[in-house]
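Supplementary Methods, section 5.1.

A reviewer requested that the exact input to the structure prediction be made available. We therefore reproduce it here, unchanged from the version used in the analyses.
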Amino acid sequence: MIRKQILLLAIVSVIAAAGGYVLYRSTVVQAPPPAQAGYMPAFALPDLTGAERLSSEWDGKPRVINFWATWCPPCRREIPLLMALQAEYGEQLAIIGIAIDDMDAVRDYAVETRFNYPVLVGQQNAVDLGNQVHPDWIGLPFTAFVNGDGAIVRVHVGELHREQAEAFLAEIL
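The structure derived from this sequence is encoded token-by-token as follows.
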């Protein structure tokens, strides 16, 4: 009798575990497919006006793609450098800010900052893009340096400084 109860308990446990696993797998949101290794993935994110901007807009041009947030002090400190680089390199280079943040917070910050480069905003979709660019990133800011062919040449984690930026730009220009 005890053997039958143990066997029945084991069978019920296996069925419950299998059912739980099937339920789990059916409700997990799958991450977007990975980009071609070493290349900037395609993306579409809204800008500060709410207009969707496609990554293809910058195809063929070297890009500096900066992931940041308004609540991140090092992110805020490096923005003047990015704006200076955009002013200096103008047509040779596209600097793109991707704020992993709330649209209203970024719009408010943009009023005082007066960005001279496009700022795109996303929350989970920007996090997913960040994971494709630099898997397992754990903090902001981080910046991808992408050549004109779309290859990610370097990803810098942490606040970017002038000397570093100049060296990385030499690799993509």
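Residues 18-35 have pLDDT under 50 and may be disordered. These observations are discussed further in the main text.
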